[in-house]
Amino acid sequence: MIVTNRGFALLIYRWSGTVRRAGPVCAASVLVGLAAMAVDSEAAEELDVIEVVGRAQDLTGIATSASQGRVGQDQLEERPLLRPGEVLELIPGLLATQHSGTGKAQQYFLRGFNLDHGTDFATSIDGVPFNMPTHGHGQGYLDLNPLIPELIESIDFFKGPYYASVGDFSSAGMARISTYDRLPRGIAKMTVGEDRYLRGLLADSTRRDTDNWLYALEFNGYDGPWENPEDVQKFNAVLKRSTGTRANGWTVIGTLYDADWNSTDQIPLRAVQSGGLSRFGTLNPSDGGASSRYSVALDWHGMGGDHHTGAMLYAVRYDFDLYSDFTFFQDDPINGDQIYQKDRRWIYGGNATHTLFGNWNDRELGLNLGAQLRHDDISEVGLFHTRNRQILSTMRSDSVNQTSASLFAELEIPWTSRFRSIIGLRGDYYRFDVNSDLGANSGSESDAVLGPKLSLTYGPWHGTELFFNAGQSFHSNDARGTTIQVDPSSGLPANPVDPLVKSRGSELGLRTQALLPGLNTTLALWYLKLDSELLFVGDAGSTEATSGSRRYGLEWTNYYQPNDWLTLDLDLALSQARYNGGGDVPGSVGRVIAAGIRMARKSGLFANLRVRHFGDVPLIEDGSVTAGSTTLVNVKAGLKYRDWGVDFDVLNLLNSDDRDITYYYESQLASEAVPVKDIHFHPVEPRSARMSVHINF
After folding, report:
1. pLDDT tens digit string along 114-167?
2. CA of residue 52 relative to chain centroid, distance
3. Is the separation of the CB atoms in 559 and 56 below 8 Å?
4. pLDDT, tens digit, for every residue of 655-669?
5. Which of 114, 234, 107, 120 is nearest to 168 (CA)?
6. How many whole angstroms separate alpha carbon 304 and alpha carbon 489?
7. Secondary element (H or E) of residue 238
8. What is the DSSP code (8-state) at residue 141?
9. Which residue in 34, 64, 15 sits closest to 456, CA to CA?
């Protein structure tokens, strides 16, 4: 057994007999230089290939919990997607919605959490973490717009705080997205659609001597159905070089991402009901933003007779500008309440793992040791009062240095042929240094936390396994909140927040293939306690720490493949989120249902119909105001023939007028004398059609 990151590399080792750790990302100069070297390459010896068959994959004897799984490109390529972040909706029970422009990170929901833009759900791409601590818009900000779905080889997901290889932002779970080292075939793709949707993709992989080279270029433009066109302009570039095998070799990967857009944020219900504003209108047409991410990473991995070692280094340059208006004329009746959120940072980090494996009583035994280091050098993270994107005043401006260091260990013991345990321990240390424009809020803070983990598995027998999992994790709070002494908006004293907020959870689960041939079923009962909740604040467009909470729920997932051309799936997730002192956690989604029918004939014809429903969403603590429910139906159908294909997406097939996301807070319109508490919502996009044509080479 080999375990580079417990639960991830172990899956890969058992499936393919090799271990793979790929790192991300790069700057423009690296892309240009590597691209030149990749030209005129020749075929060479094949690398080991991992076969991915999506959720039909047999995880018997591999998974360590019922809520762990893997999905692959075979599911992604025939799935209708409105935005790149919706790839995470392949994780049962997870929602990805939007309350603003396409270029902004999506809003995520899982296990009773309103995850905002990523808090409490850790995500990495090729080993590089994508969540942003102390971000200008929200703690744990997770923007997946730099992701090109066609490059995804697999998504491994793990729910709950039971895994020692990940710490910050992992209370609800985590996803590890891996891209191809070598594409099955090159692809040139063009997509056109309503509302001036245009997307072009060119990607291929080649060989030069013993090296694999992969490149991809993507452009995306879109106006959307909004009265104020989004005019989104997005560009992605990827270049990746890998040498050797997945057990012994190294990888360098670079990415470039740049986007700008206009936004239509959530709008007050009363303005729509009065006829003064349409569902797709805006009260501030100057809202919008821009974002860029340039990064490079180097990953090395080597295997000996009884051990495996991996090491990775990465560097990221990130810029972010966002103009939003959530309360309109509540704070400034003359200029309005538009805010500008700014983020400028470099991120440096790395990790290393060393795994020892052998036999114990003629059974596999594994010890996995790991270390992780990350430093965020944030030259400016700021909040400004603006009008038509012109700065009127500085609400707060800070420079922050945030460093985290982590150690973890996991030991897997196979006690019998059917019973095994995994005992883990993780330690994290954080250091925050804040230099604020208001001197009283400058300072330093540090904190540390230990997280024990335990997983017990019994089985398999007759294709069935039972699981028990328990563990402790955490999320970090915004560094500015750990040193605050004075509220910049009021000048009144303010209380600092805890730097690290603990979470504790447990789960009972069952996974079986015994009910019906071709049917994979899992059932999980889970519980999670969080020491402090993050709650959305409308007038700041961010979150603030509140009291602790507890959550519990049930998840039931089914994947049925009765024959080689038909697949059916049904996922049900029910949850309850309550504050420790009583009251519902606003924005927590209590019910998620996802279902699909996928048909694929040998002739190349395919169709994929998806249904997504969510509801039971309280908007205030007493539950007297709710968001209602949302149901969407999307479909994708097409034809693949030899080296070309054409497909059609119809998004929101039934033209639902439900809401993508809903809030409840005070705002004030220009015609109003006082603020009014009201529902503020962002509608789902109306029915739209897109057509894609692709050529493989």
Report:
1. 888 888 999 999 999 999 999 999 899 999 999 999 999 999 999 999 999 999
2. 21
3. yes
4. 999 999 999 999 999
5. 120
6. 59
7. strand 232-244
8. B
9. 64
